[in-house]
Design a protein that fits this description.
This protein is α+β, with helices and mostly antiparallel strands. It contains four helices and 15 strands. Helix 2 crosses helix 3. The N terminus and C terminus are likely disordered.
Length: 285
């Protein structure tokens, strides 16, 4: 379970990610004519009986996903290009939307526009308000994720290539337990193989806000594919290590994997890299 603060400042439990959504529920929007006004305490400040339309847009270059085609990122419901219509009602608070917030991390703008002929400007785009929210769980600190520190005496970071710079410039965040385990394993590997100082090349852990990695190549020859290629990478408890510095030495690779296990990192080999899961937390996800 994860926890985050709702609009009332209360801590709310969120179940583990299911499919592509982390939350689904009704949100009531109140429209007022001055900032900070409470229509329940001061009914005269409510914007009453105004027809409105609601649209949701992803904020490009947000959430550590940097894409020229970031506008393809899911927005949940209402989806990008869909419009929800309602009316503020007699108390200004009758616009109730059943939202689905997508799992993928990044900012979303919720835009409200007036659809009445009496709106002050062009009625089809007269903006009443824009709310900016995170479609996951806030920020790295709130999620308990920390950045893997630089330490070229123990490992290299695969964050200098074009592919990583373009797609995910901030992709090496993990839970404190995960970071400690990686460093502890790296220290033992470095001591055991002093002539091979850069056996470990850390490829992916998690984005700062957690959430879903997308798939897109460095040349942008195809648009982002917002499906779950990195299941556990959403939580900061899984990591990928490139194995090119280990060559074809089976004994060396097995020794590295055994050391990882001793430090709670359960490895399995995937194409081109070793994927590890933090043993102490993996059962919670």
């Amino acid at each position: 379970m994860r926890r985050f603060h709702n609009k009332h400042g209360q801590l709310v439990d969120v179940p583990p990610f299911r499919g592509n959504f982390i939350a689904r529920g009704q949100v009531m929007y109140c429209f007022v004519n001055s900032p900070g006004c409470n229509p329940y305490l001061d009914p005269d400040c409510a914007v009453k009986n105004v027809p409105v339309a609601l649209e949701v847009y992803p904020v490009e270059l947000s959430g550590s996903h940097y894409h020229a085609a970031d506008n393809t990122r899911p927005t949940g419901f209402p989806a990008r290009g869909q419009t929800y219509y309602g009316n503020t009602g007699s108390d200004g608070c009758q616009v109730v939307v059943t939202h689905e917030w997508p799992e993928v991390c990044g900012k979303l703008n919720i835009l409200f526009r007036c659809t009445a002929d009496t709106c002050a400007h062009a009625c089809d785009r007269d903006t009443l308000a824009v709310l900016c929210i995170m479609d996951t769980l806030g920020n790295a600190a709130a999620n308990g994720l920390t950045l893997l520190p630089d330490d070229t005496t123990l490992y290299l970071k695969n964050n200098t290539g074009q592919d990583q710079q373009v797609r995910h410039p901030y992709h090496l965040y993990g839970t404190p337990e995960m970071i400690d385990s990686i460093r502890a394993a790296a220290i033992e590997i470095r001591a055991k193989f002093p002539r091979n100082p850069h056996l470990l090349v850390v490829n992916d852990i998690s984005l700062p806000w957690g959430g879903m990695f997308d798939l897109v190549d460095a040349t942008h020859s195809r648009p982002p594919d917002w499906t779950p290629p990195h299941g556990g990478h959403r939580f900061g408890i899984e990591a990928d290590f490139r194995d090119w510095n280990m060559g074809n030495r089976i004994g060396l690779r097995d020794s590295v994997r055994s050391i990882m296990r001793r430090h709670g990192l359960i490895p399995n080999t995937e194409t081109g890299h070793i994927h590890v899961t933090l043993r102490s937390l993996s059962h919670n996800h």
